[in-house]
């Protein structure tokens, strides 16, 4: 039996205003005293109560004067810098600091404060307030060495039906709450029907994507103010070599783009924002061998142009194609360019002429340099990834080989990035779908952690991992190449993009993202030691070359007969073959050991692909 009560009311009585009126006070309840109960109580006369408003202090010689404390709010904006000074631009802050130091009020204030500071310094030096009295009794807690590990905490799949590659990431500058992912297809003449041209900004809390970028983009860079600068190289099989920028506050359509005739001639593979007073400057690099500077307030033409011609003749036909860029705010006038030919160019924008802007060249890779990035703790040290190795360089050695490098891997290395939390930790991704975590402070020959990227140990999207959440193992493992990798500012979460457009968010163990005691000093010592070693090797190599040149000048020139040289090389070649066959227990080169046809040395005739 269901018990319910229906309350009905006419529609005209809903929403009627309340009417209030004034009336005199009236007594609603009056409880008279009970004389029979008065005998149970004892009258107290007089009735008083004492209270102490001030603090109770004992009369003793160690008591000091109690200061008057008040709580007030402070509006602290941009570290105390004026609005027209960008706190991240070292040139503007240095210029403003010099202007303030020339003022008379600054000198007078420093003189006044110096006497007070000197008094307190002398007072602190009188007694060592940091003296350890029980240092011997304290037991040092040994930190348990945690085994390096990582787990997939979330993934974002390309919502489009026709899958594309996740080629570049850019974290939102505000607490990394969003991730911009550039999607495009790098396959030659990819004309698949139904291919979308949207790239997405993913909200990490809701696992939702917004198609703000209405073009197929290879790289994306988020502006600290909220704008977005992607560079679209391909669209429906056509090259789009001009930078375009979006403002997420204005929707998903481009705000402005550069004209085709004044832009790059090849796809744009890198774009970076520049710290400036207006916050509207950026530069881009392309495989056409040009680096162009832009101001988004006037995208009709580039403000500067640099041709990456190593001969410094500014000929575009001799230029090296730029395939990766890196810019660090710690060095506002310098940037690095990784080329298709394996050369890394260190450029200085403040040089007077364009050829002088290419300051140094670093050669060592035998393939394209897919990634180049500076160390966040030591800006003069940078990391590059290309061919089968990742290499560490320093700008203190001009035109020198790398000071450190990884071993040669079987698959290609496609991207690399430093950890923003630890100076010696960096991440690399390979074409077999493997992510390697290197810690050069402890292991130089093998990675500290190597794992296949896949949805194993995955939480549901939108659920942050915690001690109460149990990961459910999943047997699926992705063998797709991992094309890109990027780390959050705290170094705990790294994003990896696969060839099928899936973005994996990996959470690494605390030991790989927590800065330990003296770790920065030890890393600096390691880099300095390797730099000195490489410098010594360079000096010895120069001395040997000079001795060989002097020896060649002292000896008379002997003209060698090309035929004799060829004959000797031919004999040496066949002698090596005979020795190798004897070592393997095989017969002479002309001997037939099998039952095959004559002239084929026991092998079957070559067959075509269709047979």
Describe the 3D structure:
- Belongs to the dynein intermediate chain family.
- GO terms for molecular function: dynein heavy chain binding; dynein light chain binding.
- This is DNAI2 protein.
- The protein has 611 residues and is α+β, with helices and mostly antiparallel strands.
- Among the domains are: 36 residues, no CATH class; 364 residues, 7 Propeller (Methylamine Dehydrogenase, Chain H).
- Helices cover 16% and strands 26% of the residues.
- The protein contains 5 helices and 30 strands.
- Strands 1-30-29-28 form a 4-stranded antiparallel β-sheet, with no helix packed on it. A 4-stranded antiparallel β-sheet has the order 2-3-4-5, with no helix packed on it.
- The longest helix is centred in the last third of the chain and has 36 residues.
- The chain is extended, with a radius of gyration of 36 Å.
- 30% of the residues are buried.
- The C terminus is likely disordered.
Task: Break the fold down into its secondary structure elements and pairings.
Blueprint: H1 90-101, H2 104-126, E1 150-156, E2 165-171, E3 178-184, E4 199-203, E5 208-213, E6 219-222, E7 227-231, E8 234-235, E9 238-239, E10 244-247, E11 256-257, E12 268-273, E13 281-286, E14 290-295, E15 304-307, E16 322-327, E17 334-339, E18 343-348, H3 354-357, E19 358-363, E20 369-374, E21 381-386, E22 389-394, E23 404-405, E24 413-418, E25 425-430, E26 434-439, E27 449-452, E28 482-487, E29 493-498, E30 503-508, H4 519-554, H5 562-583
Antiparallel strand pairs: 1-30, 2-3, 3-4, 4-5, 6-7, 7-10, 8-9, 10-11, 12-13, 13-14, 14-15, 16-17, 17-18, 18-19, 20-21, 21-22, 22-23, 24-25, 25-26, 26-27, 28-29, 29-30
């Amino acid at each position: 039996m269901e018990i319910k009560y229906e309350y009905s009311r006419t529609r005209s009585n809903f929403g009627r205003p309340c009417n209030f009126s004034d009336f005199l006070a009236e007594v609603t309840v009056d409880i008279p005293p009970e004389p029979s109960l008065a005998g149970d109580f004892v009258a107290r006369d007089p009735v008083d109560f004492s209270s102490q408003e001030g603090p109770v202090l004992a009369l003793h010689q160690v008591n000091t004067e109690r200061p008057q404390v008040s709580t007030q709010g402070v509006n602290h904006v941009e570290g105390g810098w004026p609005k027209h000074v960008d706190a991240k631009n070292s040139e503007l802050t240095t210029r403003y600091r010099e202007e303030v130091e020339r003022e008379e009020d600054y000198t007078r204030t420093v003189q006044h404060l110096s006497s007070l500071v000197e008094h307190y310094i002398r007072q602190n030096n009188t007694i060592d307030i940091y003296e350890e009295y029980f240092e011997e009794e304290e037991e040092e807690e040994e930190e348990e060495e945690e085994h390096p590990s990582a787990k997939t905490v979330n993934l974002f799949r390309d919502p489009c039906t026709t899958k594309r590659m996740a080629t570049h990431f850019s974290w939102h500058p505000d607490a990394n709450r969003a991730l911009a992912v550039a999607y495009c297809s790098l396959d030659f003449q990819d004309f698949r029907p139904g291919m979308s041209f949207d790239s997405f900004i993913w909200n990490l809390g809701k696992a939702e994507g917004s198609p703000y970028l209405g073009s197929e983009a290879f790289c994306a860079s988020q502006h600290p103010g909220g704008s977005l600068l992607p560079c679209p190289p391909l669209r429906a099989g056509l090259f789009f070599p001009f930078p375009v920028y979006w403002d997420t506050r204005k929707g998903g359509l481009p705000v402005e783009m550069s004209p085709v005739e004044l832009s790059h001639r090849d796809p744009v593979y890198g774009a970076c924002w520049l710290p400036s007073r207006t916050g509207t400057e950026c530069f881009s690099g392309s495989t056409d061998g040009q680096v162009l500077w832009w101001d988004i307030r006037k995208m009709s033409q580039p403000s500067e142009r640099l041709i990456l011609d190593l001969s410094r003749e500014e000929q575009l036909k001799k230029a090296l194609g730029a395939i990766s860029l890196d810019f660090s705010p710690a060095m506002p006038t310098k940037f690095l360019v990784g080329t298709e030919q394996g050369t890394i160019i260190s450029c200085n924008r403040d040089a007077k002429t364009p050829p002088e802007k290419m300051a140094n060249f670093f050669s060592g890779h035998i393939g394209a340099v897919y990634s180049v990035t500076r160390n966040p703790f030591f800006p003069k040290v940078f990391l590059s990834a290309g061919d089968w190795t990742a290499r560490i360089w320093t700008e203190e050695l001009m035109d020198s080989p790398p000071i450190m490098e990884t071993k040669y891997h079987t698959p290609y290395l496609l991207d690399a990035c430093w950890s923003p939390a630890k100076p010696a930790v960096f991440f690399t991704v390979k074409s077999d779908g493997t992510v390697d975590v290197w810690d050069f402070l402890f292991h130089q020959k093998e990675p500290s952690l190597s794992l296949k990227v896949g949805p194993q140990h995955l939480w549901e999207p939108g659920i942050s991992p915690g001690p109460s959440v149990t990961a459910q193992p999943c047997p699926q493992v992705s063998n797709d190449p991992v094309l890109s990798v990027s780390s959050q500012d705290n170094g705990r979460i790294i994003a990896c993009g696969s060839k099928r457009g899936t973005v994996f968010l990996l959470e690494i163990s605390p030991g790989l993202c927590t800065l330990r005691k003296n770790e920065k000093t030890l890393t600096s010592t390691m880099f300095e030691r390797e730099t000195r070693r490489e410098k010594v090797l360079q000096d010895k190599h120069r001395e040997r070359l000079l001795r060989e040149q002097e020896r060649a000048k002292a000896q008379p020139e002997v003209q060698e007969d090309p035929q004799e040289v060829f004959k000797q090389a031919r004999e040496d070649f066949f002698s090596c073959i005979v020795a190798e066959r004897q070592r393997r227990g095989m017969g002479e080169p002309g001997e037939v050991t099998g039952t095959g046809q004559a002239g084929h040395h026991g092998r079957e005739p070559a067959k075509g692909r269709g047979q």
